[in-house]
Amino acid sequence: MSGAPGADEDRPQESENTPAPAPGSQAEQDAIFAALVAQFDDPVDLNRPDWPEIENLRAKNDLAGFNPQPRPRPSTTPAEPPRSWTPAEDPDEGHYIPPEPPPLPQGDTTAKFAWIAVLGGPALLLFDAFFWREIAGWPAWVGLTAFLGGFATLVIRMKDRDEDEPPDPHGGAVV
């Protein structure tokens, strides 16, 4: 086959006596796919596009209206110097000032040491891994036991409910 325009007209067409597959069927989709695969290596003729003429932008000459329009430029001499600008009065000024937040509650010493162990144990293991290139010896045991001990302490000390919460008369879920 040649790459000249109209070369695909020389291609043998499906025979007239072969029944066309039902629209939307798997056989129709297989036939469309087979036709696409057969045309894959064919040369493309850029002078004869296969898309609708309305989408052919090369043929349209009405793109003159799509040129960018120049924007109006402000005058080159400012009316007043830029440093003389003062901000406008803020209408919300003095409207609402939130109160100071309450101080953070003081944690007990056991909880503080448990959190230090939970965070410091893995930090010790990472320090050991990055700087000594191996996790062995007493730093590994200290890091692991610190993490496990701190975690166990925090889990054991968890409260089931708040002190100011009234007790549940049903003792749990109501069915």
Query: Quick one: how many beta strands?
Result: 0
Provide a count of the helices: 3
Order of helices and strands: HHH
Percent helix range: 25-40%
Summarize the structure.
This protein is mostly helical and 175 residues long.
Structure overview:
It is a single chain. With 175 residues, this protein is mostly helical. The protein has a domain at 109-156. 31% of the residues lie in helices and 0% in strands. It contains 3 helices and no strands. α2 (109-131) packs antiparallel against α3. The longest helix is centred in the last third of the chain and has 23 residues, at 109-131. It is extended and about 85 Å long. The N and C termini lie far apart (80 Å).
Task: Itemize the secondary structure elements and their pairings.
Elements: H1 26-38, H2 109-131, H3 138-156
Keyword list:
175 residues
